[in-house]
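Sorry to interrupt, but I need a hand with the structure work. Leave the record below and I will have a look:
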Amino acid sequence: MDDRAVSSAVSYVLIIALAFTLTTGLVLGTESLVENQRQDTARQQLEVVGQQLASTVMNVDRFNETEAVPETAAITRQFPQRAAGSQYQVGVLVDDRDAGRYTLYLDAVDSNTNVTVPVRTADSDLRPVRVNGGTLRVTYVDATDEVVIEHA
């Protein structure tokens, strides 16, 4: 008669251990899925911001090609402060200054996600900078013949 009681207790412990193992696996698998989705969302948002910022840089650069070149011209755009819950920074890398080829580098601080977007300028240089995301001002400065991205 003692064997039956032990068998029930062992079965109960095995069932609890199996349920705990399955629950732990489910939680860990879900966490990985959520992190992947967060990185994909951040990447997509950074790509959109990068493309809009590149377009703004090219529009400001066109001021240089007008008949009456202004001393300064600026466009202020409001971009999100965060991408998928992570603050991000925008940087400018010089690829080939003579050909007017630059790269905008957007980097999400918390999630190891970064995006590069190529941008071309016609006649102006694009000053290498690094600024936080948010409201940005893109300015053409005739005195230095530069387009500058700065935090507004």
